[in-house]
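User: Could you go from structure to sequence for me? I need the amino acid at each position, not a summary. Structure tokens:
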């Protein structure tokens, strides 16, 4: 039958349609199968199965119209026939050829290739309806716009060795700038996704922020700044320059306060000590933050450094009641305890009459021999007040109490010895200054006592009492 088809093509019958070709090829396959099943031999093994004989079309027998060229339809028909022939010779499915049961007319049954009935279910099948629905509503829009935007300012920093390490000081506040921006924005389903900037035009330049960053470990350790008060932790020499070999300016006692002016290095600083300027090593300084007790020690030291024989006595000492109690408690020579019992009285005189209470107590100690004199014991008179050299005991005043005698003598000294005439003193009165020769111990000595060394003796007691504070 295949030969007949070839002859047909040779005779120029090329106007067949595709359905005719497929029908012819199907007949070829069935013809091959019939040759196997109609054989009188028993069922052949798989290895002995006869192969179908197929005659191939000779491509030389195909006629072409040289004038009109090869028709495209003829080429397609030839190609399809070749493919089907190859499939017939090398079938993709294995045919199981068996002799079936015959009918009553003993007709042989031809079995065709078996088709597998077990299929794997595709559990990830695409939902085409959903995909189509989603993509049909997808919308991507681009628009070109022009916007005014802020320009962030930059932060500029610089190291400052006159600030504690890590501390920041704003020297110039930053300010944002402005610019016009042309850009293309993209939206997908109404949501912004991206932008492409086309051009920028600055309207206002941003102002940078300028920061000073501290680098001084000395200032950080003491928690201080330039201009703050610092304190000496030992007696030191103030020098003209920042060097141990520099000229000496003054000696500053331990606990005394100075003002920090400059910090040329971590080892030296410039300070002001009571209007005197100079340089000190940084390691001799501390602060109230680092040494809280230094403030109280400084207060006492400031008082003590002003104690001298030329000190003015018409001023309060600046001592507290606790200071007076500390001074007069457990005095070795106060055998009768008179001065310890009257410590608060001396303090009150200090504050009430603006006078040096330690000076008043020192006169009492000197004149009464620590309260052991007969006048002191018999008349509560610690000062020998009213006495004359000829008749000291008889001429001395007698008081109801030691406190009464202390206040009477204090008022007399304030009114007649310690203040210039006309000075406002107490109870609306003014100083008459009858015996005024200056507000010092030596000035009082001129008219108060006949002993020319009286002032040095009294001052020695003052110095002893003040030193009990340290």
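Assistant: Here is the amino acid at each position, in order:
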């Amino acid at each position: 039958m295949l030969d007949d088809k070839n002859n047909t093509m040779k005779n120029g019958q090329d106007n067949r349609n595709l359905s005719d070709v497929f029908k012819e090829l199907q007949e070829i396959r069935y013809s091959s199968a019939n040759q196997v099943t109609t054989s009188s031999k028993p069922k052949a093994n798989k290895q002995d199965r006869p192969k179908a004989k197929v005659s191939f079309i000779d491509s030389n027998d195909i006629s072409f119209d040289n004038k009109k060229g090869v028709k495209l339809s003829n080429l397609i028909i030839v190609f399809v026939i070749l493919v089907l022939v190859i499939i017939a010779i090398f079938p993709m499915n294995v045919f199981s050829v068996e002799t079936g049961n015959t009918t009553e007319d003993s007709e042989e049954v031809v079995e065709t290739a078996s088709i597998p009935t077990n299929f794997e279910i595709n559990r990830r099948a695409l939902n085409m309806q959903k995909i189509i629905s989603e993509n049909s509503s997808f919308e991507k829009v681009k628009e070109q716009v022009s916007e005014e935007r802020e320009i962030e300012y930059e932060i500029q920093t610089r190291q400052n060795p006159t600030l504690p390490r890590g501390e920041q000081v704003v020297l110039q506040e930053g300010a944002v700038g402005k610019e016009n921006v042309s850009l293309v924005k993209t939206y997908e389903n109404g949501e912004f996704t991206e932008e492409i900037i086309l051009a920028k035009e600055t309207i206002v330049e941003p102002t940078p922020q300028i920061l000073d960053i501290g680098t001084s470990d000395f200032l950080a350790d003491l928690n201080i700044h330039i201009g703050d008060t610092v304190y000496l932790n030992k007696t030191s020499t103030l020098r003209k320059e920042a060097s141990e070999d520099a000229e000496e300016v003054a000696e500053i006692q331990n606990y005394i306060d100075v003002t920090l002016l400059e910090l040329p290095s971590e080892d030296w600083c410039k300070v002001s000590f009571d209007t005197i300027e100079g340089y000190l090593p940084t390691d001799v300084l501390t602060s109230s933050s680092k040494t809280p007790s230094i403030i109280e020690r400084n207060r006492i030291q400031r008082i003590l450094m002003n104690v001298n024989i030329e000190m003015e006595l018409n001023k309060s000492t600046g001592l507290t009641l606790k200071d007076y109690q500390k001074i007069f408690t457990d005095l070795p020579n106060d055998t009768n305890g008179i001065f310890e019992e009257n410590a608060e009285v001396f303090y009150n005189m200090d504050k009430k009459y603006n006078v040096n209470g330690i000076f008043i107590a020192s006169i009492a100690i000197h004149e009464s021999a620590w309260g052991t004199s007969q006048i002191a014991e018999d008349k509560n008179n610690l000062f020998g007040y009213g006495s004359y050299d000829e008749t000291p005991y008889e001429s001395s005043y007698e008081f109801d109490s030691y406190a009464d005698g202390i206040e009477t003598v204090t008022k007399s000294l304030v009114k007649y010895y310690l203040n210039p005439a006309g000075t406002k003193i107490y109870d609306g009165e003014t100083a008459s200054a009858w015996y005024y020769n200056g507000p010092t111990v030596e000035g009082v000595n001129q008219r108060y006592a006949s002993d020319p060394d009286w002032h040095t003796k009294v001052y020695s007691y003052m110095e002893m009492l003040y030193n009990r504070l340290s």
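One structural detail worth keeping in mind: The longest helix spans residues 18-37.
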